[in-house]
């Protein structure tokens, strides 16, 4: 486990968020991205290194994401100002030989891990200082990504809701019997128990006594009806990881990264990583198709939820199954207030509910 020095000030914007999947960012191409309502123009410099500039030309505010990239330099679509990978204006066509004083666009910190491009809303120069308190925060590593014997499927979806409601949905069991009825679970009034723990900016849930109630997934996920080991986790500020283990080497992990485009829109990057021996290849189309269907159902209910919250405000009633969500909210609220959630006292609760 990663160890951190604990700082008292920490905000949601200190963290790394995905702005693109690496294969979607080709050389000689610029794409637009959004993070906390901030526009980013993302491209690769002449070395192939990803760069994110504020999506605003210094000249007359044309969006840089509408420009073109030539030899790793970004050309504004309006009057052709040219920016290099540092964000410096290296050519102003209308100035001819008489090039103006140096100008530089705002450039955000960017890194690439596990074939995702991450950015954070910290100026790149700040980021590069070794004393930067946020140096210790690294992107979440996708479990078993490209590991031997493991296959993975990547999906991206736009959810018309905020990050908190999205991450809660991804580790919420009771809804599965209703929103994903038959595909995932059916309601059969079966008792589930779990231990929920909040520690170090994370919430971990360990389920006990879960039996095969995984709908049509069961035929290949758990054909022999073996005992299921199921854990869920939330890691600050926006990651959920769902783990199913059916036998020693039969595992299925769903990692979701919920990226705040704005207060009401979240881009969710889902990694389905699984270890199914011979099935790895054969099951691929089915897993992808099922996952898309399940996610579409979640998007529908979450968009309705956001509509009602916008109208009536966020007023929730809680049951014991919602302890998980309350812990997650306490971590995200601490961050929203600029506090380091790792300073929250450790908590542990045993809960029971019926599915
Ligand atoms: S607005 Fe970009 S060059 Fe004029
Ligand atoms: Fe769901």
Whole-number total of structural domains: 2
Q: Portion of residues in helices?
A: 10-25%
Rg over CA atoms: 22 Å
The number of helical segments is 7
What is the CATH C level class of the largest domain, in words? Answer: Alpha Beta
Query: What proportion of the residues form beta strands (DSSP E)?
Result: 25-35%
- CATH homology superfamily name of the largest domain: Naphthalene 1,2-dioxygenase Alpha Subunit, Chain A, domain 1
Average of per-residue pLDDT values: 91
Bound compounds: FE2/S2 (inorganic) cluster, fe (ii) ion
The CATH topology assignment of the largest domain is Naphthalene 1,2-dioxygenase Alpha Subunit, Chain A, domain 1
- Structural class assignment: alpha+beta
In CATH, the architecture of the largest domain is Alpha-Beta Complex
Q: What is the first-to-last residue Cα distance?
A: 33 Å
Shape: elongated
Describe the structure.
The protein is α+β, with helices and mostly antiparallel strands. It has two domains: 12-136, Rieske [2Fe-2S] iron-sulphur domain (Rieske Iron-sulfur Protein), CATH 2.102.10.10; 151-354, Naphthalene 1,2-dioxygenase Alpha Subunit, Chain A, domain 1 (Alpha-Beta Complex). Helix content is 19%, strand content 33%. It contains seven helices and 18 strands. It has helices at 124-128, 163-170, 176-179, 218-221, 279-282, 284-312, 323-336, and strands spanning 17-21, 31-35, 38-44, 50-54, 68-70, 73-75, 82-83, 89-91, 107-113, 116-123, 151-159, 191-199, 202-208, 229-235, 239-247, 250-260, 266-275, 347-354. It has an eight-stranded antiparallel sheet. The radius of gyration is 22 Å and the shape is elongated. It starts with 16 loop residues before the first strand and ends with a strand. Bound molecules: FE2/S2 (inorganic) cluster and fe (ii) ion.
């Amino acid at each position: 486990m990663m160890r951190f020095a604990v700082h008292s000030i920490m905000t949601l914007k200190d963290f790394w968020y995905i702005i693109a999947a690496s294969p979607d960012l080709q050389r000689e191409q610029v794409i637009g991205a959004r993070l906390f309502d901030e526009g980013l123009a993302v491209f690769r410099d002449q070395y192939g290194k990803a760069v994110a500039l504020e999506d605003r030309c210094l000249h007359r505010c044309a969006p840089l994401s509408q420009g073109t990239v030539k030899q790793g330099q970004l050309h504004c679509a309006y009057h052709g100002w040219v920016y290099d990978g540092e964000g410096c204006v290296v050519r102003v066509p209308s100035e001819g030989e008489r090039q103006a004083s140096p100008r530089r666009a705002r450039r955000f910190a960017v890194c690439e891990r596990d074939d995702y491009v991450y950015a954070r809303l910290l100026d790149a120069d700040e980021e590069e200082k070794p004393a930067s308190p946020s140096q210790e925060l690294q992107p979440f590593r996708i479990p078993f990504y490209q590991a031997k014997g493991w296959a993975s499927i990547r999906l991206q979806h736009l959810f018309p809701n905020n990050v908190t409601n999205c991450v809660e949905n991804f580790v919420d069991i009771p809804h599965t019997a209703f929103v994903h009825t038959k595909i995932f679970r059916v309601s059969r009034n079966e008792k589930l128990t779990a231990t929920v723990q909040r520690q170090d900016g994370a919430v971990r849930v360990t389920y006990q006594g879960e039996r095969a109630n995984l709908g049509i997934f069961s035929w290949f996920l758990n054909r022999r009806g073996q005992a299921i080991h199921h854990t869920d986790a939330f890691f600050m500020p926006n990651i959920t990881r769902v783990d199913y283990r059916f036998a020693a080497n039969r595992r299925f992990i769903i990692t979701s990264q919920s990226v705040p485009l704005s207060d009401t829109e979240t881009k969710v990057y889902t990694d389905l990583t699984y270890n199914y021996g011979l099935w790895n290849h054969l099951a691929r189309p089915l897993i992808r198709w099922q996952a898309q269907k399940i996610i579409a159902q979640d998007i529908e209910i979450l968009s309705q939820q956001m509509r009602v919250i916008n109208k009536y405000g966020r007023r929730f009633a809680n049951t014991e199954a919602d302890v998980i969500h309350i812990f997650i909210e306490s971590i995200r609220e601490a961050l929203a207030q600029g506090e380091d959630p790792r300073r929250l006292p450790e908590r542990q609760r045993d809960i029971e509910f019926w599915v």
